[in-house]
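Many introductory courses stop at the sequence. We go one step further.
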Amino acid sequence: MARKNEQEAVMVMEEDIDDSAKPKKAVTLEDLPGIGAVTAEKLRKAGYLDFEKIAAASPYELEEVADLGVETAKKAISAARDSLEMGYETADNILERRKEIRRISTGSKSLDELIGGGAESMAITEAYGKFSSGKSQVGFQLAVNVQKPLEQGGIGEDSGVLFVDSESTFRPERISQLAIAQGMNAEKVLKNIHVAKAINSDHQIILIEKAEEMVKKHNIKLIIVDSLTSHFRSDYVGRGALGERQQKLNKHIHQLQKLADQYNLVIYITNQVMDNPGLMFGDPTTPVGGHVLAHAATYRLYFRKGKEEKRIARLIDSPSMPEGECIFKVKAEGIGD
């Protein structure tokens, strides 16, 4: 009997030792290895408010914003990921989550069908083409249509819009015109659209990095960047600057995708083009941004100007829709067939 009691006591002691030996899951930023109160405050000021942000960051990002050593940053990121239990999941769970996806109608049934029913949330829809091809007009129409009820091709009357204007193309008068044509309250539509004019590429990057605060505060459902590449082209000139430009552009576009995934947002970006002098036959029009932008965009549309009001849209790339073309019109009352 005494031997049995002695064995039970030993087992209890071993259990106590095992529990104390287990690493405790981090609850606050200060619980992460190498993160003290001062460093945690720096991270919060830089927008790293939760473990999701830390887990998705690179060690070099944390080194830059919080003066952390790379190895310390790696440990903090690893601990954040352990706390979130990040890893694989089955495809049926992903399918269930994708049922939350919303689509905004462009105003044209044929253009909607081309991209699977409208501009998709949790995705980046890119439109590139020459001037006057309809890129900005589709953006204006989306900014109005997102504020319609679900059954009318929108996301809801209280849906907010962020519009980053890098080419001085935003026109509230046009938004008002489109809203009135749809039978909507133009003043209310305008109040739900928050516009920022980017003065250079660095300012544009900061506007998107700080966009999360606006998303939470104003129920943002759509982010428009018109155009994504304008300032990058002017700020980084020559082959010597190409590498740095592409690195910053890559980080910028992935920040947009993070926002889309985290908050179920629709992202619509426009892109400039250039002529490829090495192309002897066919259309020499080439989108700016190279492979970085080509791989990042979920839906890639090429717009061309037709006769009078007609525009031709070609779907260049999509994970779920076949390549194809459609014709839509840019009219005074908006985008249509």
